[in-house]
Task: structure prediction
Amino acid sequence: MIKLEKLTKIFDTPGGTITAVDHVDMEVGEGEICVLLGPSGCGKTTNLKMINRLVVPTSGKIFIDGKDTDDYDPVELRRNIGYVIQQIGLFPNKTIEENICIVPDMLGWDRKKSRARAAELLELVALDPALFLTRFPKELSGGQQQRVGVIRALAADPPVMLMDEPFGAIDPINREVIQDEFLKMQQTLRKTIMFVSHDIDEAVKMADKVAIFRDGKLEQCSSPDDLLAHPANSFIADFVGGDRTLKRLRLVKVSEAMSKGAPSVTAESPVADAVKAMEDHGHANVVMVDERKRPRGFVHMNDVRDKKGPVSDHYEALEATVDAREDLRTAVSLMFSNDVTWLACTDADGKYAGYITQRGITHLLGETYNQ
Amino acid sequence: MNRTFRVVALVVAFALGAVAYQQGVIPQIIQRWDDVWFLGKEHMLLVAVSGGLAIVTGIPFGIWLTRPSMRKAAETMIQGLNIGTTIPTLAILALSMSLLGIGKVPAIFGLWVASLLPIVRNTYTGILAVPPHMKEAAVGMGMRPNQILWKVELPNALFVIFAGIRTALAINVGTVPLAYLIGGGGLGELIFSGIALDMTDLMLAGAIPVAILAVLTDFAVAQCQLWLVPRGVNPLR
Result:
């Protein structure tokens, strides 16, 4: 969707020439979020701004949807690319509705259509149109303003969006919330997005692809997991941090590390069944489920070997269970806070789906290093 | 606080009124009402024409100075205008008379020069004060330069521009009496005649209406500022 070919920008300054972007080749597929990451002054923002011609490239080509952007009038080009900046840049003299409708109005949309669109977009980010359409930017909190900044860029439904540290100025708690909202929106909108960030955690969370820049050069462009597991050089390894494997926990879902098809017993089952299930499956614990298949407790091999009676006489309660749709970070955090080495996992209906062990997680994350 | 202030102001106004009556000013104004009315209209006509000209020329000039092509020359020109304002208004009127003779035209020209600077300067600084990121957002969304000027820069600078107009018109109303000296007419006629004839009441019959007109003009412009500047960028609303 977006393709850069040998893109280069050289600035002439009184102190000599500075190569801000140096022969960058990269491609972002349709519906992907590509995060441009790197220390300040690495050329990531210049790279972004060349795509909508806020910075004119010295050499190289930019293709959007296969078409050379040199062939467009820059103004027409920009109207078809959503643009979000860190300082938001809402116009204080205009109401929220007018702000959102700027690009649709310039494109000559029917007034009714653009106004309806503004209301629809506000609802998308959970701001009540009845309250917010007629307000002015100064009457909104920072987080609300940034949400409006994002939907303003979406107003004319551009296929491509450029975002320059869009959530950089928001406090950490709100930032998480807005990032989650945005990812949720992106699941249905499927925009092609270039996103500048200097925060590795944000990149790992948002990106389908991360492009790391240093001194104007593209150092590595790969999926977040690949980047964290196999940094191409020591600069990237340092940049993504010594705890990079821990960061991968966020990228893997519990369901991927979970042992599926694990046996379970009910409260009424005799302990002999439980022992047999454990022996067959080769795990020293078996989960006890209630009549609705929800995990309720477990029995350990050492406690029930050679015992008699139903499971209900011998089980221990489960301190915690984890939803299989969560990421491994949540699972590991639950294990640490409950001092356990394994967790029962539940599916969307709360039914027992399998279990996850520390060994299993270690193995899954370590697999990629043994190849 | 506000209430006390109003009470004090009312008492002072009554006291001044009483003194004025006793000094014979009020009877004088009533007696010369026809003159006051005629010269007052002439006075305000001079304000309207010279002030109006200053607005319609000063704002475009200020805008022109903010254009990228003028970036280097603009500061120098603003400095030049600043030096221009240090020339006393009376001197400007005198110069204007030596160029254009006597009558309304040189008076309007002199008043126009005197009220130009605050308008140009406030337009210039108001537009430059629009944050760069706001302009970046505008460019990035695909606005053309004239759209940015009309939809972003001017509305956001409007409050400051109005402040300039307010200052300019306040100066203007207070300077018009001097226009009498070069044959421009206005309430200066009563003031200077009063001084020449050593008639305090005649002088005050000109001076008090000038003061009232200055306050009313300022009030009128302030109201325009309050209601014409969009709510989102108006600190008064």
Chain A has two domains: 2-248, 254-368. Chain A has 17 helices and 18 strands. Chain A has a mean pLDDT of 90. The CA atoms of residues 25 and 36 of chain A lie 13 Å apart.
